[in-house]
Amino acid sequence: MGSKRLSRALGIAGATLAGSYFALRPWHRHWGTTDEEATGSLPGDDFVEDADWQSTRAITIAAPARAVWPWLVQMGQDRSGFYSYERLENLFGVHLDSTDSIRTEHQHLDVGDEIRLGPFRSAAQSFRVAVVDPGKSLVLSAPGWETGESAATWTFALHEAAPGATRLVIRFRGRSGSLRERLVDRFFVEPIQFLMERKMLKSIRTRVERERSATMDGRYR
What we know:
The protein is an alpha+beta fold. The chain has one domain (about 30-220): 2-Layer Sandwich (Alpha-D-Glucose-1,6-Bisphosphate, Chain A, domain 4), CATH 3.30.530. It has helices spanning about 1-30, 35-40, 65-75, 85-90, 180-220, and strands at about 55-60, 115, 125-135, 135-140, 150-160, 165-175.
């Protein structure tokens, strides 16, 4: 009788956790976005034609797009990091050190340039620049974007919502392989990605607005 009660309790707990996860999933996959941003098209969407995983997140930054762009173009391993939780990144062996300043030596990208996500030069730890439209969009992709056969893309898009206010929209599109990979992506990778991207968005906003404020203060002194 005791074992039956335990099994029933575990079943109820499991169902509750699963229900909570799937109830929260639409929220964290579209964190900060408007309905139009969540469902609208972005550069690079067509590079992963059969994507089974997509998240879109956004934030408003009190600065024009030209002030946000320098922080995006300098991202990457051995560049300026990704402005997220460094301790968590380094726990997974990424070894990133996000900068608090604009680095002039990392302000230019060309299509095909490698942006490493981790310390090693491998397909699993690097993307290539697929689209670079200064002040508007940056698309990083796994190999194959030229033919629409990329396994994953990471898009950063800037839209000026009002004079001096910019929407930064980040979209990840991916294609899982086996059922096991899909389950790992849904229950493990997605929540971690959400935490990291939300921190990235907030950190970029903090850096941009702080830099903007310092510039304006200096202008009026």
